[in-house]
Specification:
Layout (H helix, E strand, L loop, with lengths): L23 H6 L9 H6 L10 H24 L2 H16 L2 E4 L16 E4 L2 H8 L4 H7 L2 E5 L19 H11 L13 E3 L4 E2 L1
Parallel strand pairs: 3-4
Antiparallel strand pairs: 1-2, 2-3, 4-5
Helix pairs in contact: 3-4, 5-6
Length: 203
Amino acid sequence: MPRRIPQPKNVKAGVGQLPLEMESREKSIGMQCRGIFSSLYLRNNFTQSEAFPSEAEVRPIYEKFQTLWFTLNDAIYKRNEAFTREKFILPLFEALGWLHLPEEHMPKQHAGLRKRPDYSVFSDPKAYQRASEAVDTLALFRESVTVIEAKKAALGLDDAEQTGSQRLFPSQQVQEYLRRAADNAGNRFFNWAVLTNGREWRL
């Protein structure tokens, strides 16, 4: 039987913290909004953008990858990050038409980073080509519209990794990418990044 998606624990937010439970209006659009965009903006404004695809365009991709997720379900929770990336995340990028460069093809010079992101994403083929020829991570970031950090399906996005010597939380890695993706004057090359374990996608 396919594994059920884990449900959030019944934990209450502390004083001054944002509520952890998904509100009813968030359930209606299938996402949680925590300080970046309001659910009202996403539902009424963002969806009216010319860049926002129609339901008819999105539904075939959604249904294909919903089926794939449940097909992989038992295996994907038992395997490592590389399995999640290869079997689910990378095929999704390709279906969406995202131009991306994986970590293994990024420059070895890290621009002060402890780790490189799993993917950089590009807006057009010229930017992708320039990034492919970059000699350091900073030059790569200059051409990117964002970066994506991927984790294995079994790892919660608020949980520290249990392998390796650094034991970083996923959000720490993303924050480091955002801090480093800037020129000498402090101008950022991109202002947001994506964190995912395949099951949950966080901006």
